[in-house]
Amino acid sequence: xxxxxxxxxxxxxxxxxxxxxxxxxxxxxxxxxxxxxxxxxxxxxxxxxxxxxxxxxxxxxxxxxxxxxxxxxxxxxxxxxxxxxxxxxxxxxxxxxxxxxxxxxxxxxxxxxxxxxxxxxxxxxxxxxxxxxxxxxxxxxxxxxxxxxxxxxxxxxxxxxxxxxxxxxxxxxxxxxxxxxxxxxxxxxxxxxxxxxxxxxxxxxxxxxxxxxxxxxxxxxxxxxxxxxxxxxxxxxxxxxxxxxxxxxxxxxxxxxxxxxxxxxxxxxxxxxxxxxxxxxxxxxxxxxxxxxxxxxxxxxxxxxxxxxxxxxxxxxxxxxxxxxxxxxxxxxxxxxxxxxxxxxxxxxxxxxxxxxxxxxxxxxxxxxxxxxxxxxxxxxxxxxxxxxxxxxxxxxxxxxxxxxxxxxxxxxxxxxxxxxxxxxxxxxxxxxxxxxxxxxxxxxxxxxxxxxxxxxxxxxxxxxxxxxxxxxxxxxxxxxxxxxxxxxxxxxxxxxxxxxxxxxxxxxxxxxxxxxxxxxxxxxxxxxxxxxxxxxxxxxxxxxxxxxxxxxxxxxxxxxxxxxxxxxxxxxxxxxxxxxxxxxxxxxxxxxxxxxxxxxxxxxxxxxxxxxxxxxxxxxxxxxxxxxxxxxxxxxxxxxxxxxxxxxxxxxxxxxxxxxxxxxxxxxxxxxxxxxxxxxxxxxxxxxxxxxxxxxxxxxxxxxxxxxxxxxxxxxxxxxxxxxxxxxxxxxxxxxxxxxxxxxxxxxxxxxxxxxxxxxxxxxxxxxxxxxxxxxxxxxxxxxxxxxxxxxxxxxxxxxxxxxxxxxxxxxxxxxxxxxxxxxxxxxxxxxxxxxxxxxxxxxxxxxxxxxxxxxxxxxxxxxxxxxxxxxxxxxxxxxxxxxxxxxxxxxxxxxxxxxxxxxxxxxxxxxxxxxxxxxxxxxxxxxxxxxxxxxxxxxxxxxxxxxxxxxxxxxxxxxxxxxxxxxxxxxxxxxxxxxxxxxxxxxxxxxxxxxxxxxxxxxxxxxxxxxxxxxxxxxxxxxxxxxxxxxxxxxxxxxxxxxxxxxxxxxxxxxxxxxxxxxxxxxxxxxxxxxxxxxxxxxxxxxxxxxxxxxxxxxxxxxxxxxxxxxxxxxxxxxxxxxxxxxxxxxxxxxxxxxxxxxxxxxxxxxxxxxxxxxxxxxxxxxxxx
Length: 1172
Description:
The chain is of the alpha+beta class. Helices cover about 50% and strands about 10% of the residues. It contains 36 helices and 24 strands. Strands 3, 4, 7, 12, 13, 14, 16 and 17 form an eight-stranded mixed β-sheet that branches. A hairpin with a 5-residue loop joins strand 3 (about 50) and strand 4. Helix 9 (about 350-385) packs parallel to helix 18, helix 10 crosses helix 17 and helix 20 (about 735-750) packs parallel to helix 22. Residues about 1-25, about 270-275, about 300-305, about 515-580, about 860-865, about 1010-1015 and about 1065-1075 have low confidence and may be disordered. It is an enzyme of class 2 (transferase). One of its GO terms (biological process) is proteolysis involved in protein catabolic process.
C-alpha cells in the first residue's frame, strides 16, 4: 500500500512541480531586493516580534508590531500568501519604504500603505471602510498588487474579495513591500514563492507572479530523492547470485534486508512522518536491530523536527482538510446556562432534538477517538522498540542509546528556555510525554511480573539518591536548598553519615574557586553597554530560576564521589571514585550497575527501603518525564483550554442572538436581517469549534491523558515524601518536582474538567490528603530557600483552602501537621509574603464573619460573570477545625499572639494609609478641568490596597471573635497596648469611610472601571463586628475598660457608629444622595446581627454621655506625647512620665527615653497623688 501510494504521489508531485517550474522560468523585471524573499528582521520592523528561523513566520510580542519583507515591486503584477495562524487583530497588505509605523499606527494607517483586516472585516488606507469576509485560523489570504493598473486585491482561501484599492500611488521612486501589523500574540506565516502557492489554479495565476522565484535547485533534489526511493522499492537482493534484481514496485515488502533498510532510513530521514503509512514503515524499519541502533545513534537525535515529530498528532486548524466533517457530521454545544453564565449540567431539561444532536455528536467523537488511538498505538510501538534493552548482540542496547539522547534533548530544552526558536514546540512535547508514559509503564509492569520484589508502576517514584549522587545531570535547574556547590560544602557530613557518600575536599575547593571565577564573570557580564544588553540573548524567565539564587548551578556529577564502608567505622573511609562522564558517553554499567555497584542508586539513605524498584534506566526516564512536564507540557495544557472557552462564549452569544430575533418587532426587517447574519456567523463558528474541540478532547483532554497526568502527580508526591524522609538531604531535591506536583493538580482540576471528573480517579481523596500534607509542611520549610518556589507553595496552599473538597483534605492531615501549619501562618508578617498568608486565614474565616457570606461583593453581582474556577469566586467554606487550632495557639502562646497582632496592625496601618493616598490622587485627577483619564495601573494598585485592608480587618475580626482575651484580659502584658492600637485604627477607618461627602465617598461614587471592588460595605462589616465584640464580648470590668479605651481615643466620633444604621443628619447630604445602611443588606446580614449592632450603638451612646459629664482632665495631667490620655506610667531611672500606650509602643522599637535619651530600665504605674 505504501509503495503504491508513494509511486502515485511521486507522479503527482512531479507533474505539479513541473507546472510550477514552467510558470516562471525567466527572470521578470519589476522587483528589487534579494532573490530569496524573507521578512526584514534587521531594519524593517517596529515593536517587538518573534520571527521564525526561516524568517517567514512571525509572532507579535507588543501592542501593535509591524514588519515588512526584504523585496519590493515597482511594476508588474505580484502576489504572496499569508497563512493565518491566529484570528486576532492584524492588518496585512503593502507599504512603501517611506511609511513610518509605531505602536499605534501600522500597515494601512499611513498614506502609502494599504491593508486588509479580516478580524474587523475592513480595509485600511488612513481611513477605513467595510471590506471582505471574516477570517479564521488556518485561512489563506492572497495579497495581489497590479502596478500596471494601480490596484490592490485580496483573496480569502482562493476566492476574490474584490478590488480593495484603486488609483494607488505609482511612478518613479515608488515601490511596494509586503507588510503586516499584528497585535500581541497574533501569528502568521508568509509564502512569497519558496513553496508552491496554496491556490495556484485560480484566475490570478495567469497574470500574477509570486514575489520569489521557485527554488529550482531544491525541487531538483526532491525529484532525485523521490526517484531514489522509487528505485529502492523496485529493487531486491538476490542472495544466491549476490546481485540486485528489479521487481514490481507494487509487490514490495519489508523482509529485513539490511542494505535496503539502511538506505530507506537515510532517505526517510528527510521526510516528516506525518502520515500513518510513514509510522508503519518506521515501525518495520525499527524492528531490525542494526537499523534501529543506527537510527538511534545517527539519525534520531531528538532535535526539534525529527524524532519527536513521530509522536505528535497535529491539531487541525482547518476542519475540512482534517476530514472531521465526515467523522463528526453532527455538531453540538451547550445551549442552557445558569444565571451566572455557566453551562447547566442538568440534562433533564433537554428537548428531544437537543438530546439526539448531543448523542450523535458523542458518537462522532468516539469514532474520531478510535482513529486517533490507532496512530497513538503505532507511536507507542515505536517507543517500545527504542526502549528495548535486550538487544545486546550487536553492541549497546537500544534503551541506553535512547536514554543518553533523551537526556541531551532535555538539556537543550532546559538550557534554552529563554529562546523559544530553538525549543521543541510544546504541542510536540505533550504528545511525546503521553506516549513515553505508556511505553515506560508497560516495561515497568513487565519487570514487576518477572521480579516479585519490585514495585508496580502504580507505586512508582524516583529514589532520592538520584538527586545527590551525581549520576544524573540536572543541568542548570535549581535545587530546593540553593546552589549545588553550597549544598556539597554544607551537607558533606550529612552525605557521609546518611548516604555513605564522601565528597573529595579537593573537589569542593576546586568548585569553590570556580564559583568565585563565575561570580566575577557574572558581575562583569552585568555591566554591558545599553545596546549590547538589548541586543543579547533573552533574559532567563523568572519561572525558571529563583532570583535569589543568582547564576546557574554546578552539579554533583562533576564531583568525586565515593562509598564509605559502614562495617569499618574506625578506619579511614575507602574512596571508590565514580566516573564523571558526559551524558552521551555513559554505558549500561554506569546506569544499571553491576557486581555490587548500585549504578544510578548509589548512596541509598538509611530511610530508603532496601528493595528493588525497577530497572534503573526506567527511573531516569521517569525523572525525565517529570522534567518534560515542567518544561512546557503544563503551559500547553493551559493554552488549549481556550478552545473550550471560545465554544462557551460563542454559544452564549448565539443564544442571546436567538432571543433577540424572537423579540425583534416585525416592523424592523433591517434589524432582523442583521441579527440573522450574526446568527449564521455564530453557528458556523460553533460548527468549526465543536469539531476542533472534539479533536482536542480526544488527543489532549481524554480520560486516558487525564490518568497519565494523575499518575505523574502521584509519582511526584511519593518522590517528595521519600526525599523528605532523608532529613537535610531533602535540600538536594530539584525544585521542579514540587512545581509539577502543584501544576499537575491544577491541570486536573481546571483543564480536564468538566469533560472528566476528578472524583472518578482511583484513590483521589487519599492523593488530595497527601498533597495537602506536602503543602502544609513545606510552604514554611527552612530547607527550601528559593523565593520563587516558596511563593508558589504559599499560593498553592491559598488556592487549596478555597475549595471545599481540598479544604477537607487539609483537615484530614494529622493533627500535629495541622497545628504546625497554623503556627507558621501565625508567625509575624514581616520579612515574608504576608498577603498570601493573610488570604489563607481569611478563607478559613469566610462564612463566619459579620455579613461575610457572599461570593462576590453585592454591587458586583450584576457584572459580567468571571471564570467560575477562580479561587476568589468560590462559595464560602470556613474551617471550624483550623479556627480552633488558631484560637488555641493564640490563647496559649502570649508572645506569639502579641507579635502576630502587632504585625497585622502594622500592615493594616500601612495598607489603609496607602489606599487613602491613592484615592486622594484619583480624586485630584478626576476633578481636573481637562478630565484626564486615571491611569489603569493606579486604579489596580488602589483596589489592591483596599482588598488588603479589608482582608486584614477580617483577620482582626476573626482574632477578636476566637480569642477576645488577647485584647480584654489586661493580665496579659500587651493587652492594653493592643487594645489601644486596635481602637485607634478602627476609629480611623470608620471616620474615613463614613464621613458624608468625604474623599472616600466621592471616589466610590465615581464608579471607575478598575476600581469597582472599592466599596464601603466590605470594611464597615468587619469593623462593626470588631467594635461590637470588643465592647460586648465579656461582662464586668473588661467592658468598662474596652469602652473607656474606645471613647477616649481622640479619633472617636459617635456619628461614625450611627452611620452604620443610616442614622445621619438630613442636612449633611443632598436629597439625591443615597445613605449607607446595614439594613439594606438583608441577604447578607441577619436580623439578629442588626439587633446586636443597635444594642452596641445604644450602649456607646450612653457611655459617651457619661464620659462627657465627667470632670475634664487638667492639661497638666495629660500625656505630653499624645495629649489624649492621662499620665499613667513613670520611667526608670529618669522619672519622666507618659501614658502607658505611648511608652509601650515606643519600647517595641527603642529603649531610649522620649525626653532625655537615657536608657529606660523599667516602667512603673503612676497615679497622681491625692490633693496635688
